[in-house]
């Protein structure tokens, strides 16, 4: 209401309400190397571009004469009822997105302001305990990059449990970092200096492994990351992952229906259909185009989705195609860069407001109704 009626009555929003406007504003505001890191993808960014453009060949058919005066956008996930179907995807080094270096805390405060869960990355700049504390009553998820050292994996997961995170999201597609020309051509990240990835650098197990306080520079940061993480996970590791926690385990990066089936058979509690926003492998098919097959294979198992969501209508399309919850990455990062917690909250609220309005106009009072109707693929 605030954004919509404000806009209609000539009260300009503090930040743009659409992705193109947001990105343009962020482009002008962010330091060049930070912008490259956030905005960039793999190779010539075919997959990243396809992720967003593929939403244009899916459409929702409107229904009329349905009472949509009240909409219910809540979803059930991991035994909780969440007020909205949106969540913030994990973004490593989010700290840099705000001037004070505490972007993770700002994102957590945006979660507290909106009720939209945040997924804290293994590579958060602030310790996951501080990030969780800033979320207030809004639930959060912890994203695990699996370390080669099993004790470190155990330590990170147990810290996440103790901090109150509600699920462990294991990222499968990043045991090596993708071919990202924007970063490779200019990996000088001056603003990274002094911004320690303290979530894992302060981990008690990690500190016993390195034996001394790590140096706070980019090269050490990158090389330490590469040496510490990058365990090559296979299906044989599922019993071990399962043994680490009683929290729901979500496998992130699944785009093939056979992998979805295998994940569920191996004990995963949810599937996360994503291609990392096109940052890990170029040449891949848009994630939204694989979502229907993954949803069909998953059956009653929840399917989280991200990659290319840029608007409320994209959110609605992903839900219509069967996603249980929909994640965004770059959009809220730009919000953080423009206005910290308030900026990120504005981005999330704009996405939700547009999705809600679409459901109102198109005759879908609930997400279940939207899902039942589905989306049509355009010729
Ligand atoms: C990411 N992503 C990511 N994923 C993950 O599992 N752990 C991480 O630490 C990161 N870090 C990260 C940094 C940056 C700058 C970006 C843009 C993305 C991927 C992220 O979780 C998500 O899959 C994509 O961002 C979704 O695509 P969109 O919404 O950015 O198009």
**Ligand list:** ligand FNR
> For the largest beta sheet, what order do the strands appear in spatially?
4-11-10-9-8-7-6-5
Overall geometry: globular
* Number of individual domains: 1
Classification by helices and strands = alpha/beta
Q: Would you state the CATH class? A: Alpha Beta
CATH superfamily: Aldolase class I
Measured on Cα atoms, how large is the radius of gyration? 20 Å
H/E series: HHHHEEEEHEHEHEHHHHHEHEHEHEHHE
Could you say what the CATH topology is called? Answer: TIM Barrel
- Give the strand content: 5-15%
Distance between the termini: 36 Å
Report on the structure:
The protein is an alpha/beta fold and 379 residues long. The chain has a single domain, classed as Alpha-Beta Barrel (TIM Barrel). It is built from 17 helices and 12 strands. The strands form 3 sheets. The protein has an 8-stranded parallel sheet with strand order 4-11-10-9-8-7-6-5. A two-stranded antiparallel ribbon has the order 1-12. Helix 14 links the parallel strand 9 and strand 10. It is globular and about 65 Å long. The protein binds ligand FNR. The site of ligand FNR has 23 residues, from helix 3.
């Amino acid at each position: 209401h605030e954004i919509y009626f404000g806009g209609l009555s000539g009260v300009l929003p503090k930040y743009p309400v659409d992705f193109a406007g947001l990105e343009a504003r962020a482009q002008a505001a962010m330091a060049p190397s930070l912008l490259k890191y956030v905005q960039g993808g793999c190779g010539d960014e075919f997959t990243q571009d396809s992720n967003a453009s593929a939403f244009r060949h899916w459409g929702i058919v409107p229904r009329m004469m349905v009472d949509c005066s009240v909409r219910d956008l809540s979803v059930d996930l991991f035994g909780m009822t969440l007020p909205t179907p949106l969540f913030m995807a994990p973004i490593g080094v989010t700290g840099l997105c705000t001037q004070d270096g505490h972007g993770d805390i700002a994102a957590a405060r945006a979660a507290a302001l909106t009720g939209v869960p945040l997924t804290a990355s293994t590579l958060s700049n602030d310790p996951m305990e501080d990030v969780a504390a800033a979320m207030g009553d809004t639930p959060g998820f912890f994203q695990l990059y699996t370390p080669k050292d099993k004790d470190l994996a155990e330590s990170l997961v147990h810290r996440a449990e103790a901090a109150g995170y509600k699920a462990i999201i294991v990222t499968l597609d990043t045991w090596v970092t993708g071919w990202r020309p924007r970063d490779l051509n200019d990996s000088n990240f001056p603003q990274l200096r002094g911004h320690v990835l303290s979530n894992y650098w302060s981990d008690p197990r990690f500190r016993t492994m390195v034996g001394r306080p790590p140096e706070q520079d980019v090269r050490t940061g990158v090389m330490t990351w590469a040496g510490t993480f990058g365990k090559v996970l296979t299906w044989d590791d599922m019993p071990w992952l399962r043994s680490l926690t009683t929290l729901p385990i979500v496998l992130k990066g699944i785009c093939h229906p056979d992998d979805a089936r295998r994940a569920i058979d191996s004990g995963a509690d949810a599937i996360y259909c994503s291609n990392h926003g096109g940052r890990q492998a170029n040449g891949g098919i848009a994630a939204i185009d694989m979502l229907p097959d993954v949803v069909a294979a998953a059956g009653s198992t929840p399917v989280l989705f991200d990659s290319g969501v840029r608007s409320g209508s994209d959110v609605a399309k992903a839900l219509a195609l069967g996603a249980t919850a929909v994640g965004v990455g770059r959009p809220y990062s730009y919000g953080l860069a423009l206005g910290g917690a308030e900026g990120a909250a504005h981005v999330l609220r704009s996405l939700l407001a547009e999705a809600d309005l679409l459901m109102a106009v198109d005759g879908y009072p609930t997400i279940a109704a939207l899902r039942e109707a589905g989306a049509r693929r355009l010729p």
